[in-house]
Amino acid sequence: MASDVGNRAPLKINFDRDHVIEATPRDTVASAMLRAGHVACTRSPKYRRVRGPYCLLGDCGTCQLRIDGHPNIRACTTIVRDGMEVASQNTFGPPGVDPTGLIDHVFSDGIDHHHMMVKPRILNQLMQVTARSLTGFGTLPDVTIEATPTHRQLRPDVLVIGAGTSGRLIAHALEARGINVHTYDRRDRLALEVWSQQPLPKHLELEMGVIGAYPSEGNGGRVVAASSPCGEDQRLHSIYPRHIVLALGSRQPTMLLPRNDLPGVVAARGLLHMLQRTGKKLAAPVVVITRDPAGERLATRLQEHVSQPLKVIAHTDVRELVGSDRVRAVVTATGRFDCEFVALAPTPAPAHELAVMAGAAVAFDGRGFAPLTDDTGRCQTTSPVPWDLWASGSLRGVADDHSDQARQLVEAITADIGAAGAT
Ligand code: FES
């Protein structure tokens, strides 16, 4: 069933107590804040550098905020609810009077901790003590957790992690063969509908904030999935699958550029997805920095959702990004281009971390670390694991049409289950 979130009343969230931000039911906390001009929303865990959302798809962690009393919640994957209390982390007071803001001005060229205050020794020791006392992220929850999450144990033939293009293709094909498949994704229904028109799998668990795979736990290994503490229904699932299909996709890493961590520097793919989701055009000036033709195509798609003409610049032409509390301009050999957002379009890298956790062997493939597989997608593993592990889609480097690869993988899993007997 399609989401009906577009027609509900406007919502309000409170940011750092003093700021009321209007939102729509299609917003995440991050999209509402960015649209309201709160680009710098928190500070980094080590040197208190000012931070804003980067990936906008739940991958990087730079958008973590305290939401309804829960620390370290990713604002870019948290759906807005009316009256939410949102607070920045690692700050010492409201914006404007927070003394940590001095850092942005004193170290406007960035903090190089390999060389800063290395000598004299006493100054270095002082700096280290100060940095360590500041280190950490957020503080403990200030809410009592009254309801324990619903705990379920599942033993599917196949667990599919990721309901993007290839995950959906595979889950559907396996379901059509009568195989017991459960699919998990950290995104919400609207995010998946925006991502692709393909129908969603039957047994689908959404908004899972944490998914971990523990091959050495107990006798048969366990996958644990938990919903975000800010979600409407609290779930904790222990899953004991025979096969795991990793359809984890890829992510846009940052680009090596001076001051690439300034608030307002975002991933182009995440920005596109956010604008498609909210249905609202971005009125601010945007510079897109590309590396390859795929990045240029992304810029073309992004233009449909931005009111002003985009300035597209090749990565190799950029000298620096300019700004202290947020990005203000991009400087190249031929001039300075003022902007409020810089959208980076690097080559996507495989989202391999959960694959490694589940036991997959990975190797650098030029884009990042990808699972080593045979032609069907069966993963090599670093040691014996209690499940059969498969990788699909852009995690394996398949960019667009995933159908052939998905078909081979489905045939191979079906043959395995047929040989062993379906549950
Ligand atoms: S995790 Fe939210 S911006 Fe990256």
Topology readout:
Blueprint: E1 11-15, E2 19-23, H1 29-35, E3 42-43, E4 50-51, E5 64-67, E6 70-74, E7 85-87, H2 101-106, H3 121-134, E8 150-154, E9 158-161, H4 165-176, E10 181-184, H5 189-195, E11 204-205, E12 208-214, E13 222-227, E14 235-239, E15 243-246, E16 250-251, E17 265-267, H6 268-278, E18 286-290, H7 293-303, E19 311-314, E20 318-323, E21 327-332, E22 335-338, E23 341-345, E24 349-350, H8 353-357, E25 362-364, E26 369-371, E27 388-391, H9 403-420
Helix pairs in contact: 4-9, 6-7
The protein binds FE2/S2 (inorganic) cluster.
Report the top-level CATH class of the largest domain.
Alpha Beta
Which residue ranges are poorly predicted, with pLDDT under 50 across at least 5 consecutive positions?
none
**Total beta strand runs:** 27
Number of domains: 3
Q: Distance between the terminal alpha carbons, to the nearest Å?
A: 28 Å
The computed structural class is: alpha/beta
Beta strand %: 25-35%
CATH architectural type of the largest domain: 3-Layer(bba) Sandwich
Morphology call: globular
- Main β-sheet description: 5 strands, mixed
Indicate the percent of residues in helices. Answer: 10-25%
Q: If you average the pLDDT, what whole number results?
A: 90
CATH topology of the largest domain: FAD/NAD(P)-binding domain
